[in-house]
Design a protein that fits this description.
Length: 469
Amino acid sequence: MRAPWRVAVVGGGIAGLAAAVRLRDRAPAGTEITVYEQSGRLGGKLRTGELAGSAVEFGAESFLMRDPAGGESAAVALVRRLGLGERIVHPTVGQAALVVDGGLRPIPGGTLVGVPGDLERVTTVARPAADADPDAGRPLLGADDDVSVGALVRARFGDEVVDRLVDPMLGGVYAGRADDLSLTTTMPALARAARVEHTLVGAVRAAQAAAPRAPGAPVFGTLAGGLSNLVEAAAAASGATVRRGAAVRELTPAGPGWRLTVGSTRDAELVDVDAVVLAVPARPAARLLAGWAPRVAEGVGGLDYASVALVTLALPEPELPELSGFLVPSTEGLLIKASTFFTTKWGHLRRADGLALVRASVGRYGEERQVQRTDEDLAATVHRELSAVLGVPLPAPVAGHVQRWGGSLPQYTPGHGDRVAAARAALRASHPTLALAGAGYDGVGIPICVRSGETAAEEIITALGGPGT
């Protein structure tokens, strides 16, 4: 009878917790799982707080309900596995707007993250180039090509479509620029279609057709009571020993397994395990890999990150439009890059006293100094800009909260996917009992991070000899 496995999960974000749950479900009985989290909190960018007596997300707000193939997303599957399926709620208002020339205009339908499948439908916010999207008789991309989203869309549709539509849509997700972000990583379905289709309109339509959505089916969901419930339930279901405030400073091969150095240099603890899921951002991961896998460390360590601040205001009976929120192109010159009207968008958050919760996102890649303003300055600027965009003076907030996420959003430059694939291939060949997981490798969003963690767990299980019976 084989001895129980000992597996370390380094990183207590949702990717690491999903890995721990999958290990508990699939590894042999008796497997010892330990989650090491440097901070005092689990959940990473999933953090539910309280403001003016209401639960409010200070990090990720929701998850996609469907996966790219049209099935249930990995996040929904995990929610159901944890017995939280009945808590899933959906937006009651889905229409969002763009700030164009200082005012709000509805985001046109029929786009794929802002890239239009019908140029006529976007003319309310942007003018496509006069000679847009000619058919040159060959696919837009070669079989192994990767380009920035901005480069492709500018070449086919012109600058306004990028600046007024695609850039703010991508910026709302990644806090980055369309001209810098990899098409293959940020929009994989469109990249696949572009390797076949001769026009960008055709590629968008093909990508949309490949993942059909039933009319009226919700796109997004969240949990009543907050996403921190998902974190707590995953930690409990994993049966893992959770070590908060436990920084893993060194990670070295030790015989067939691994040795972790945990804690301060003055009081270091050495821990031996059979396998490791490394579910931390790319730069700290690279530091742990550098001593014994320098090429792998170089491949993943070059990933850069953007910093953002989320400013949430509790406003007494403001005049808000019936919108879920709005996005702001960088060309508008505002500090805000996006805003969500929580108590309008989510019916379960609406209050009988008319108090509204409004959140604004601040910070684009390369503008870290803006995020370093004081809480008071950020809150005052957000309040002033919201009033200007809405065209009405908003009441003074009765409460507010500023959540800073320093170095939190990965910036995937073209070729990111190939670099990560090469790093993982090298690890599988030389050290198969270590697997990488998280947004730094596979993309942002709760479903992607959940799937990344689960995939890493499956790789560990295979490397150690297969699932339990």
